[in-house]
Amino acid sequence: MKHMAQSLRYFYNEDYILALDEVNQTIRRFPNLAIAYARRGTIYYHLGDLQQATINWNLALKYDPEYVEVQEMLSSIKKEIDKISLYNN
Q1: Rounded distance, CA 41 to CA 76, Å?
Q2: Is the model's pLDDT at 89 over the cut of 70?
Q3: Once rounded to an integer, what is the mean pLDDT over residues 24-44?
Q4: Burial class (CB in 10 A: 0-12, 13-18, 19+), 47
């Protein structure tokens, strides 16, 4: 779990690439750890990659279907996308 702790430190320092590297190391070791996918989704979100963020948040839900924070993020993103689509039409 030291990689998860280190990824959080990098994340709070806005060093998203290093945070991503640390969380990827965690996922290699613990491939079913929902919190790691949730964190990776959040990192991708901050990097501006909404597609990868969504993929990882959905993986987090696959491993923990009751992950409320991830459910809320996906719902919020869906509302944002719907709003953008509405304005573009």
Answers
A1: 14
A2: no
A3: 97
A4: middle
Q: Give yes or no for residue 18 having a pLDDT over 90.
A: yes
| Pairwise CA distance, residues 4 & 36, whole Å | 7
Structure tokens at 43: 């990192």
How far apart, in whole angstroms, are the C-alpha atoms of residue 33 and residue 9? 19
User: CA triplet 45, 39, 69: central angle to 5 degrees?
Assistant: 90
User: What confidence tens digit (pLDDT) does each residue in 79-88 have?
Assistant: 877 777 767 7
**Mind giving me the DSSP string for 22-61?**
HHHHHHHH-TT-HHHHHHHHHHHHHTT-HHHHHHHHHHHH
